[in-house]
Design a protein that fits this description.
Blueprint lengths: L1 H24 L10 H22 L13 H26 L27 H17 L2 H30 L1 H9 L9
């Protein structure tokens, strides 16, 4: 699982850089965020930590492990998902450019973006993180870690999406409502 840990550290470094960048250029208000950025950071970090501990302490012959055979294959699959998730997140951030923030802030002159990954889903940067955490769960090689790293971050992001979409509708109005009606939240064509 070393490659998964290294990939996680690369991702966390990237996230810390984004948060610092936003703090430096912030307009000073995070009231619209309702604490969701902090919640996501804590929840995801704790989930990854717990999943890592579970993968270490769970006996090798446990029925909860799905990597008893072909462990390397599962680790490669997990790291591949992680890299894909990081790629999706970076792509989503690049498409939004200066409009991307780690807090919920919507500029009054901002337009709905529906190109790149935003053509398929409304929150591709969150989809990227969820691919990343799922990949870590796969690389961890046990059902407890995998379920933890799918369910817990998804619940945190659903709350964030609720807060973010309320701000988008409030600021962008009908154009965002139309976009929301034709585009899925996190999974293209499904959800």
């Amino acid at each position: 699982m070393n490659a998964a840990v290294v990939t996680t550290w690369i991702w966390l470094s990237f996230e810390i850089g984004l948060a610092l960048r936003d703090r430096l250029r912030s307009k000073g208000s995070t009231a619209r965020d309702r604490g969701t950025r902090t919640t996501i950071m804590i929840v995801v970090a704790v989930a990854i930590g717990v999943a890592n501990v579970v993968s270490i302490v769970l006996p090798a012959d446990s029925d909860l492990r799905f990597t008893a055979r072909h462990e390397v294959v599962w680790q490669i699959a997990g790291v591949t998902l992680m890299v894909a998730g990081l790629g999706v997140r970076i792509w989503a951030i690049a498409v939004l450019g200066k409009a991307f923030r780690t807090t919920v802030e919507v500029d009054t002159d901002q337009a709905v973006v529906d190109r790149g990954p935003y053509h398929w889903v409304r929150h591709p940067s969150y989809t990227g993180v969820l691919l990343l955490t799922t990949g870590f769960g796969v690389a961890a090689g046990n059902w407890i870690s995998l379920l933890l790293l799918i369910v817990v971050p998804t619940l945190a992001f659903l709350r964030r999406i609720e807060v973010e979409e309320a701000a988008m509708v409030e600021t962008l109005g009908r154009s965002y409502e139309d976009y929301r009606a034709r585009t899925r939240r996190l999974v293209p064509g499904l959800w």
